[in-house]
Design goal:
Elements lengths: L1 H15 L2 H30 L10 E8 L2 E3 L4 H7 L6 E15 L4 E9 L3 H4 L4 E4 L14 E4 L1 H8 L9 E4 L2 E9 L13 E4 L14 E6 L5 H18 L9 E6 H6 L3 H32 L1 H9 L4 H36 L19 H27 L3 H6 L8 H37 L10 E6 L9 H16 L4 E7 L8 E7 L9 E8 L3 H5 L3 E4 L13 E5 H7 L9 E4 L12 E7 L14 E5 L5 H10 L2 E7 L7 H11 L6 E5 H8 L1 H35 L1 H9 L4 H30 L15 H27 L3 H7 L1
Parallel strand pairs: 4-9, 6-8, 15-20, 17-19
Antiparallel strand pairs: 1-2, 1-10, 1-11, 3-4, 3-7, 3-10, 5-8, 6-9, 7-8, 12-21, 12-22, 13-21, 14-15, 14-18, 16-19, 17-20, 18-19
């Protein structure tokens, strides 16, 4: 240990004598280590940290497996089967996120909420600060209304009144008794964090097949995930016998670990980004190794003298590794400081749907795991960047080196080959990164060129929760929509206004449908469904392809009508005209869903309801005044009403006027989630933006480091060959031929690295398959343009050393000799 400390002390003195080399090496390592630490901080918070619940590895989410993939949404009929599996699960719970209108004082406030069955708070280990959680039976229909609120809401809106438990508050215009207050710090993994918990009433005898919540439970001790899934298949067999009309081929029940479900969408992208910054670090290590090789060649005489005085090869290697360790630790310290800014940058371009990072990224930071990772990376970096130069430098021919003049210590063929191999490696890694970044950028560009099916410009949107009792009937909702649209449309600067149960690009509900006159083979098919006001298509500039749009005449007493999109018409009427067809929507899907057949009166253009990266599927639109009562009851529990306002001027300028107009219709309904359709459109591609920006930054850093590596190799080579070049020029060699020879010498390792990188990328791009849209992983444009860019950068990097070589003064070079 004492000897190692002496080595570190000597290394510190040695590095101080070469500030240029030291600062360059530390900067390269800080770039690589800082980027790795920043990305790992996010990966640690999202993928590695266990959920903050008791026994998180045993908490599972119930799924419905379908041919299109696993669906996490559950229905009452399914949940009643799941909670009977007492031999496999405990604390089986159902819950759904939403909003409630809290009336405390004169102004209503819309707050985030969770409706949950009685066992949910127990499942997630929610600590109660005052009062209690839900009791058994309080989640049954007809039970009294109770609520549990967070400590933050208790202090913010109720002044931390200790008498609040047992008191009544107004939620959605209904009285709720506060039975408990959660302790501060309970982190329910959802955004936004809920302030209010209320019981989710599920009838144990319900045959409701509407999917509007998620369900979770805890594996009993000794039960494995595989055995639980086997049990779920038996449960599905019983469900199929009980409800033969609601199952299809290839479906079944399953469970997945809750943490895996949370991160399933972001895991591939984060792992790709972690791999990308790992490549940047390897390139930085290659650059530092090249610098160390060059420095070691200049110190050959020093090493020879030390060896002649009795220093063994192991001591020399240990000394050089100590220098590398100091460089790595200094780079890690600087990189750790820089990673804080890197994390802030990541959160600035955060797509908003990265789970588990907390409000404003509060869960992302440097903890013991991140610090240990940084230290480990430092040690590995020191070994990777220093071992090869140390081994090369320790192989010193004492007699030959001591006879050489100080300025003529040549590196030898072995060192030249090593430096060339390092340049080949970093150029290959840069090629892989650049190809990956180019694919993501091209994918993002293709995504942004997708026609959303409507005009998002100059459109303002709002949300209003309808969970209050006055809107439990379709007529009440229709009247509210009529009055709200009429008042907002009359405002100066408003071109048109409409309302709907869902906004484009943000997803829609789904209901089964059948054709009345010629039922579909295999039974009803589930398709997208949205209820809209009559001016919906006009406000969004959606074209009417065939037939007509809804009008004010399509009221509750009028003949039931429906409009479908072009995708549905093509799928179910590929050779005919869908106008006049009669459809049955939601038959026996849930209580109150039965309605007479609807006549198709129009076909409209396809709107991307599920995001720009997914092709529009079959979609049905029905008039809001004609919603079935059961659909209205479900809709008002699940989704707030969306208002759509097309403006003649900049939309943000009309926010206050339109909010006042809507509040004038019903003062007890808060207006929330004010945003433009342009903002919704940008947010729908934010994850692709996140991936493309980060990969571009990493590949840009890799390209810069690779260019510096090629330049450094050639600059050193020219410096070492000045005497040889001077002799050639003195003997009459053409300076242009000398320049061309140097250029070719530098381009050979660069071109070899580019070829290897392109071959590796050709094999690895399949890992990006799930992140791409509109292009193939082996896109010809990318695989041609990126090698050309790299070749141009390499040529630029070798040109200046070659130009300097062609200008060598022969007389001066020979005189120096």
């Amino acid at each position: 240990m004492i000897e190692f400390l002496k080595d570190l002390k000597f290394s510190w003195r040695s590095l101080r004598k070469s500030p240029g080399f030291t600062l360059t090496s530390i900067a390269a390592l800080a770039l690589g280590i800082g980027a790795n630490t920043a990305i790992f901080s996010v990966v640690n918070a999202v993928l590695l940290k266990p959920l903050s619940y008791p026994d998180p590895d045993r908490i599972v989410q119930f799924m419905l497996a379908t041919p299109a993939g696993a669906d996490a949404a559950g229905s009452a009929a399914e949940f009643n089967i799941w909670r009977l599996q007492n031999d496999t699960f405990q604390d089986v719970s159902a819950y759904r996120n939403g909003t409630v209108t809290l009336t405390q004082g004169s102004d209503p406030e819309q707050v985030a909420s969770v409706e949950a069955t009685a066992a949910t708070l127990r499942l997630f280990g929610a600590p109660i600060e005052r009062g209690r959680d839900f009791a058994e039976g309080e989640d049954r229909p007809g039970s009294r209304r109770v609520a549990v609120i967070t400590d933050e809401l208790w202090r913010r809106d109720f002044g931390a009144d200790p008498r609040l438990p047992g008191e009544t508050i107004s939620l959605d215009r209904a009285p709720y008794v506060v039975v408990g207050i959660l302790a501060p710090g309970f982190g329910f993994d959802s955004e936004p964090r809920p302030d209010v918990w209320t019981p989710l009433a599920i009838d144990p005898d319900s045959n409701d097949h509407a999917h509007y919540f998620v369900a979770a439970g805890r594996l009993k001790p000794g039960v494995t995930l595989a055995s639980a899934n086997a049990r779920m298949q038996l449960a599905y067999a019983g469900f199929r016998r009980k409800y033969p009309n609601y199952v299809g081929p290839g479906t079944g029940f399953s469970v997945e670990r809750l943490q895996d479900r949370f991160v399933s969408d972001v895991r591939p992208a984060l792992l790709v980004l972690l791999g990308a910054v790992g490549m940047v670090l390897l390139i930085a290590c290659a650059n530092v190794a090249n610098l160390l090789l060059v420095r070691a060649i200049g110190r050959r005489r020093e090493f020879a003298i030390r060896a002649a005085l009795g220093a063994g090869r192991g001591r020399l290697i240990r000394q050089l590794l100590a220098e590398c360790l100091l460089l790595s630790l200094a780079g890690s310290a600087l990189g750790l400081a820089a990673s804080a800014f890197g994390v802030r940058f990541l959160l600035t371009i955060n797509p908003g749907d990265i789970p588990r990072i907390g409000p404003r990224g509060s869960a992302v930071g440097v903890d013991a795991v991140v610090l240990a990772f940084t230290i480990l990376v430092s040690v590995i970096t020191a070994a990777v960047s220093g071992l090869m130069p140390a081994l090369q430098a320790s192989r010193t021919d004492l007699e030959q080196t001591l006879r050489e003049r100080g300025g003529r210590a040549a590196g030898g063929c072995r060192q030249s080959r090593t430096r060339s191999l390092l340049v080949i490696g970093e150029t290959a890694l840069a090629a892989v990164l650049l190809i990956g970044a180019a694919l993501l950028v091209r994918s993002f560009t293709a995504l942004r060129r997708v026609d959303p099916g409507f005009d998002p410009h100059q459109v303002l949107t709002f949300r209003t929760s309808l969970a209050g009792t006055p809107f439990n009937r379709t007529a009440a909702v229709a009247q509210l929509v009529h009055d709200g649209v009429e008042r907002v449309a009359a405002l100066p600067g408003v071109a048109s206004a409409a309302a709907a149960t869902a906004l484009p690009l943000e997803g829609s509900s789904g209901l089964p449908f059948d054709i009345a006159d010629s039922p579909l083979a295999g039974g009803p098919v589930r398709v997208g469904w949205t209820a809209i006001s009559s001016d919906y298509f006009a406000a969004l500039h959606v074209p009417i392809v065939r037939g007509r749009a809804f009008s004010q005449r399509d009221e509750s007493g009028a003949p039931p009508v429906v409009i479908m999109n072009r995708a549905m018409a093509r799928r179910f009427w590929p050779e005919g005209n869908a106008i006049g067809a009669r459809l049955i929507i939601g038959r026996n899907y849930a209580p109150g869903f039965d309605e007479p057949p609807r006549e198709v009166v129009g076909v409209v253009g396809d709107i991307h309801d599920e995001g720009l990266n997914r092709n529009p599927g079959p979609m049905l639109y029905v008039p809001l005044p004609q919603m079935a009562e059961g659909i209205t009851a479900l809709f008002r529990r699940v989704l707030p009403l969306a208002w759509i306002v097309r403006t003649r001027a900049e939309p943000h300028a009309l926010i206050a006027a339109t909010e006042n107009g809507l509040r004038g219709v019903s003062r007890d309904l808060p207006v929330a989630e004010v945003q433009t359709m342009d903002e919704i459109s940008v947010r729908s591609t934010s994850r692709q933006t996140f991936n493309a920006v980060l990969m571009s930054v990493f590949s840009g850093a890799a390209l810069l480091l690779a260019a510096l590596g090629v330049y450094g190799l050639m600059a050193y080579s020219v410096g070492q060959r000045r005497h040889e070049i001077g002799i050639r020029l003195a003997l009459g060699a053409n300076s242009r031929l000398v320049c061309a020879a140097i250029v070719w010498q530098g381009l050979r390792p660069a071109f070899t690295g580019i070829a290897l990188g392109v071959a590796a990328a050709f094999l690895l791009v399949r890992l990006l398959q799930g992140l791409l849209f509109g292009i193939q992983p082996r896109d010809l444009v990318v695989f041609i343009s990126i090698p050309a860019v790299l070749a141009a950068v390499a040529l630029f990097a070798v040109w200046f050393p070659a130009l300097e070589a062609s200008r060598v003064d022969a007389a001066r070079a020979l005189r120096a000799e």
